[in-house]
Amino acid sequence: MSYSVQLPSYLEQGPAVSKRFRELQERPVKLRAESLSKTFQTAKGKVRALRELSFDVHRREFITVIGPSGCGKTTLIRILAGLDFPTSGKVLLEGKKVHGPSADQGMVFQDYTLFPWLTVKKNVMFGLEVKGVGRLKAEAEAREWLEMVGLSKFAEVYPSQLSGGMKQRVAIARSLANRPEILLLDEPFGALDAQTRSSMQAYLLKIWRNVDVTIFFVTHDLDEAVYLSDRILVLRANPGEIDELIEVPVPRPRSPQQFLSPEFLATKKRLEELIHPPGHNQNETMPMIRLT
After folding, report:
1. Which of 55, 66, 82, 172 has a CA between 20 and 30 Å from the CA of residue 122?
2. Is residue 5 part of a domain?
3. Cα–Cα distance between 273 and 104 in angstroms, integer?
4. What are the two backbone dihedrals, phi and then psi, of residue 216, each rounded to the nearest 5 degrees?
5. In this predicted structure, what is the pLDDT of residue 14?
6. Burial class, 282, CB count within 10 angstroms (exposed 0-12 / middle 13-18 / buried 19+)
């Protein structure tokens, strides 16, 4: 994308944004990654997916990770969720080392992962009942979360009767019902059409504003990263390493009208420079295929 107007530096912050980041840095650290590395053994030998990643995520922060294909985004979020383990380094959640998945880590995948044999309400109740919450209390809490995601009228229907966006709202409500310390979302809107994706972004921001939860979000969409995030963790590929950690200078609360603001465009331009640097594919040659 080319920019015909002179944009400010993505490092420039207005007074309100600067104040917000000072306050954010003063909050307790919710999650800490210390020198995370991950190596996979393949038939062709060892492949290093991540190398020496270190960063902090503060309470109620919305942080997004983005990067080119092969940079290890999904590997990283699986390690944070306790679904995979680093070859070296460690993850601390609330100061305690992560040894595996738990109710403290809510996880939402791109695939909806709902139980098709349970109603929407029963899907949200599931984790609560596993934790030993009584049926009546679990049902009351499930209804509260469905109200939060705008699906109260669909409590008794089954996942097969829902659209893709509605299924993801159920998945988010189910994760949040367990009151996790951090909500981890791995490209949750990647399979949705543009209009539904936009609606889901608005729902997620509404939830984040009203719920005491920290969010770690994976996406490949630059606009989505800028629109949602406080900070953006940019990874480079082969192996996955931190390229830059960007403080988004776009004021909150966010709205779609900000997509054309100078701060938004400047941040997006910087992401494009990092992920698609000039000349990065000049050495690639397209195959010549004769069709006739």
Report:
1. 82
2. no
3. 36
4. -120, 120
5. 95
6. exposed
Contacts of 130 (CB under 8 A, 6+ apart): none
Residue 285 in domain: no
Rounded-to-integer distance, Cα 31 and Cα 97, Å? 10
The Cα 100–Cα 138 span in angstroms is: 25
Q: What is the 3-state secondary structure (H, E, C) of 173-206?
A: HHHHHCCCCEEEEECCCCCCCHHHHHHHHHHHHH
User: 45 and 95 share a domain?
Assistant: yes
Q: Which of 217, 220, 211 is nearest to 178 (CA)?
A: 211
- Tens-digit pLDDT profile for residues 111-151: 878 999 999 999 999 999 988 999 999 999 999 999 988 99
- Is the previous residue joined to 68 through a cis bond, with omega within 30 degrees of 0? no
Rounded to the nearest 10°, the torsion over CA 17, 148, 79, 130 is 150
Spatial distance between the Cα atoms of 186 and 164, rounded to a whole number of angstroms = 15
3 lies in some domain:
no
- Report CA torsion sign: 91, 97, 102, 106: negative
Same domain, 34 and 71: yes
Cα–Cα distance for residue pair 37/50, rounded to 1 Å? 5
CA gap 219, 226 in Å, rounded: 11
DSSP state of 43: T
Closest C-alpha to 229, from 249, 248, 204: 248
